[in-house]
Write a structure and sequence with these properties.
Blueprint lengths: L12 H9 L3 H20 L5 H17 L10 H20 L19 H19 L3 H11 L5 H8 L3 H17 L5 H12 L1
């Protein structure tokens, strides 16, 4: 999966997914190169460790090839990638049990298919994260929410709040630092949970 200079295919996404289903390796490579940077950016915006973000994305693409026969060409391939990466991140955080002691919790299922262990972690993590956010200056809270929850670019935030992009970058950096200073490792869980609530 090494990057290299290559000519872009004229096939649209639907055609490429159809070819992928048939085992066409060129179609897989084309989809990979079309979306890899975007998916790495998405994963990196939640995971503060670049290597971990890359590992998650690569695992998802390996899954794409392994499960190629199950794809529906009429459905959005990019949406599948975003959803898979989000779920992979949630599962990784849950399995690592960084914020929650899950040893005494049953396997009972609830909350629309989310297992109860994850729901407990989400609620506890969200409570702690909101406490961190509440201590930030108001403008930093706005920048953080617009960037990490609403998904706006730094330029869009700059225009919306009438501040420079450099100031936006500064507030995002400081916001992330606030989580680290408070020993809060699971910012990703909070962000993904808030996205699920709002959207």
């Amino acid at each position: 999966m090494k990057k290299r200079v290559r000519k872009k295919s004229q096939h649209n996404e639907t055609d490429l997914v159809l070819l992928l289903k048939q085992g066409d390796k060129f179609a897989f490579e084309e989809l990979y190169h079309r979306y890899i940077d975007r998916m790495l950016g998405f994963a990196s915006s939640f995971l503060l460790n670049a290597e971990e973000a890359e590992e998650v994305v690569q695992i998802v693409f390996i899954g794409v090839w392994d499960n190629r026969k199950s794809f529906d060409p009429e459905k959005s391939f990019s949406a599948y990638l975003y959803r898979s990466i989000k779920n992979r991140i949630l599962n990784r955080i849950r399995d690592q049990k960084k914020m929650c002691d899950l040893s005494n919790i049953s396997d009972e299922k609830s909350f629309d298919g989310l297992d109860i262990e994850r729901e407990i972690c989400l609620k506890e993590t969200t409570r702690e994260a909101l406490e961190v956010v509440s201590k930030m200056p108001k403008i930093r809270q706005k920048v953080f929410i617009l960037s990490k929850i609403d998904g706006l670019s730094n330029k869009e935030i700059s225009e919306k709040l009438s501040i420079s992009t450099r100031t936006v970058e500064h507030h995002i950096y400081k916001a992330k630092k606030s989580f680290k200073v408070n020993n809060f490792d699971n910012i990703v869980l909070f962000l993904l949970f808030m996205n699920e609530i709002l959207y």
